[in-house]
Amino acid sequence: MNLSGSTVVITGAGSGIGLATAELVARRGARVVLTDRSADAVRPHAERIAELTGAETGFRALDVTDGAAVENVMGSVGTIDHLFTCASGSVIAPFDELTEAQVRQFFEVKWWGQYRCLRAALPHMPKDTGSVTLVSGYLYRKVDPGYFAFAAVNGAVEAAVKSLAMELAPLRVNAIAPGPTDTHAHLMNPDEHRAYRDEIAGRLPVGRPGTAEEVAHAAAYLMENPFTTGTTLDVDGGKR
Ligand SMILES: NC(=O)c1ccc[n+]([C@@H]2O[C@H](COP(=O)([O-])OP(=O)(O)OC[C@H]3O[C@@H](n4cnc5c(N)ncnc54)[C@H](OP(=O)(O)O)[C@@H]3O)[C@@H](O)[C@H]2O)c1
Known about the structure:
This protein is of the alpha/beta class and 240 residues long. It has helices spanning 16-27, 39-53, 67-74, 100-110, 112-121, 148-167, 190-201, 212-224, and strands at 7-11, 31-36, 57-61, 82-85, 131-135, 172-178, 232-235.
């Protein structure tokens, strides 16, 4: 199966892995709809990708914590061949320093956001040819201190895909589990960024963090391969 002529909806597409995937699937001939918290976060990218690839692109403001907005947006696209749910916040602190409100807010975006988007997209997806790619992350099976909330959400996502792949078949449902991926350089000064890369380099067999484009490549594989369902694909530079 190739993506030509299909429609791909991506949440959290204003940056990082979601954005890189939007560009890649557009290059492969898909119509891509980029969504993120504000229209301003995705409009320029949708325009640039359309210009670059000649593909039809769309964009929507979509805060995945807003159930009514999720329903409206998923219902406004037409047929959704492939859904990729990248929207996420971040919460990093030792367990006993995190408040319940912080953990709940993290779950509200990364867990309930993915749940809501799938529920709302489902009636618009072709079951026999469609796919859903949820996002987990290495921090469930390959833990690091300070990332309890990531471990918990990622574990839930990975458990859910196995069940959903059976229940929603023939719709395919997979998850992708990125390893440390260099998507936040814009939030660091050059020294911090260098220290981040050096730290990751020492811990990964590939000797560097991943790129958003490398994870996007795996996301496109999960959309395209009709014999892959119920799996979590590690794209993690060999993280153990
Ligand atoms: N990068 C890594 O090392 C890594 C490793 C393992 C797993 N992952 C997972 O991969 C996914 C993508 O990560 P990334 O590195 O590409 O991060 P990213 O660049 O921060 O992308 C996440 C996007 O989601 C948006 N977002 C946040 N809250 C939202 C909401 N309520 N509704 C809609 N969009 C919202 C963010 O917008 P704002 O910028 O406005 O917040 C951002 O554009 C996440 O699930 C992450 O946990 C990443």
